[in-house]
PhoX family protein
Amino acid sequence: MSQTASTRRQLLARTGALGVSIAFAGNLSELFAGTAAAQNLGHTGYGPLIPDPDGLLDLPKGFRYRVLSREGDRLRSGEGPVPSNHDGMTALAGYSAGGHGRRVHLVRNHENRNTAKIPVPTVAGLTYDPAGKGGCTALTLDSRNHVLSERVAIAGTAVNCAGGPTPWGTWLTCEETEDKAGTNGYTKDHGFIFEVDPANPYRSGAAPLTAMGRFQHEAIAVDPRSGIVYETEDAFERPFGLFYRFLPHAPHGGLGSLRAGGRLQAMRVPGVPDLSSIQQTGASFESIEWVDVPDPLAARTPIRFQDFGPKGITHAQKLEGCYWGGRSVYFVSSFARSADGSAADHYGQIWRYDPAARRLTLVIVFGPDTDIQLPGESPDNICLAPSGGLMVCEDGNGAQHVYGVTRRGEVYAMARNAQNIGTPEQPEWGEFAGVTFSPDGGTMYVNCYTPGTTFAVTGPWRR
């Protein structure tokens, strides 16, 4: 193990009328290393947010939105109403049937538990467990973000939170639950990853990728060279979640390749049982170990409780976002609280793992050692923007925002949810989720979790 001193500490710009500050320690530019976003990053924000007269989405001047889909409306396929709880999402490139004309396939998670107001409609050939109310819907858009189709992509799953795209153009949707058959009315075990083909969901069906583990999945990222899939676990109670990698038997990919199975391993950082104990940005750990998971299906014992030998395994609270950039995988711990059992407190960490060097580095820390935390709560869904740096979905109390962060470390409010789901006396706003960009970088897509709404935001992104 080697540790280096924090490279810098920055207090990020105030977001004007919001009256809030964001602070972090570390070198933000490292997050963009080796990515397209590093080539053309926005240097400042886009100005103050303008109140939306329609009361849906506040944006800076020059930006506009289109509502693509709203909870309770009819799916264009006629399969039923648009389900509740819009969460993780990705945008994948596509083309018209004749090969002419650009299309965008949006595949959207619905984090529905058994109490969900509007379940994902069950569809023959696309339903895993008829008792499950979660799943994904898929929208196909033309080049002007007009919705051409909207349909169920997978149904009968549960608590579909996040996931991630594959290099071969599909979506891996993740169940954030460990409920087994007989629990909450389910007829099958849950806690799996499923592959979804948004262009033709019947090609992917509803088959759980059991070798990738049964646990409270959050997000994934695929190494495009090796085919290794990295997975985060958002466990709510001690012992907290693990960071995993899945070594597929068919590493060259393609729809259905992950069904061939593989080995599931969990990360061990020598001498570090809890990642929250590391507070110094730039801290680097060599010779990271990967330990085979004794029982990936967790038939008797959840994976994080299983016996990983006398050296134990490394845990972390609230492991959420995950993406591949350059030659490394980045993953987020949204927060850690000693009152919950973590080794130390923080309001967000971003870690980088370099597989070639077997090195883990703490890149960014959000408070409390920086004195100020993110407004409401810490980073949840994040994505790299083609020209605006990093986009972060806020998930907490009070007004909810999408924040942009430039490579220079400047923070600005990109969007604010104007839909009050509370009362005038006690206003409440649903969180943002699933922020992603179109393949050409011209549109930001983002979900409002409640009431479920999917927006397409266009404007002078390359200003």
The CA atoms of residues 393 and 402 lie 5 Å apart.
